[in-house]
Prior knowledge:
It contains 8 helices and 13 strands. It is an alpha+beta fold. It folds into 3 domains: 22-96, no CATH class; 103-180, no CATH class; 182-276, no CATH class. The chain has a 6-stranded antiparallel β-sheet with strand order 8-9-11-10-12-13, with helices on one face. Strands 4, 5, 6 and 7 form a 4-stranded antiparallel β-sheet that branches. It has a 3-stranded antiparallel β-sheet with strand order 1-2-3. Strand 2 and strand 3 form a beta hairpin. The radius of gyration is 19 Å and the shape is globular.
Amino acid sequence: MRPLLGVLICVLTLCLAIGAEMLTPQAFTEEFARAxxxxxxxxxxxxxxDLKLTMKEANGINRxxxxxxxxxxxxxxxxxxxxxxxxxxAMFSQSASKETALDRxxxxxxxxxxxxxxxxxxxxxxxGVAQQHLAEPFNKELVVVYALxxxxxxxxxxxxxxxxxxxxxxxxxxVENLKRVLPKIELRGDDEVMLMSAGGNYEASLLLIDDxxxxxxxxxxGDIVVAIPTxxxxxxxxxxxxxxxxxxxxxxxxFVSQGxxxxxxxxxxxxxxxxxxxxxx
Length: 281
């Protein structure tokens, strides 16, 4: 078995094992509490009943969190459990933002698909929260969301948090910060498909570091083509590599279907300093 394919199959097998059985409301609540605790370590999260949590935030605010809607979303697609937790943690983390000093050195860019941002804003709107996250288009399918990456958690920034920077300046600042916090970037694979890794949190955001793609260090047959099916998986092949394209499409589809933290199974071509949907002009 090819080494890269073996690694990917192992990851997919683990995802299948996690999502093999539908969680009961009680089990879902307990798992959600554990996941939310990991996402928001500065908050105290407790189970108050089936599909009900209580949260005490670092700023002293106490909340009751009803998980009925979250459980309904989960039942429609159990593999979206991680994405549902991420949406909730992004929403609740905003409550402490007004009391948190904005440290420019910790602002980082996060690549998301447009659907994720739309769903998050719709969720906030449905809960009567009038706020927009600090984001901008990356291409027709993806957006750049800005976040504050501190030692305890990642918090998505809102448009109300003003750095006094233009979007171009903010992008440049965030990318430089990303380069600084990234561990060593590794590229491994075979003649068909390569897997680029950078610690497990910012693989998708590597698309923003132009030096990686324009320097010639990524050698493929044709133009560089990538897939970012989840936030921690970045697959690379060439536009003239038929076998590689076939494998990337298959792997991207599997990762998106199994999650967690899925993005998109769309392939993107790097040309003229930017990534666009592969196959589009």
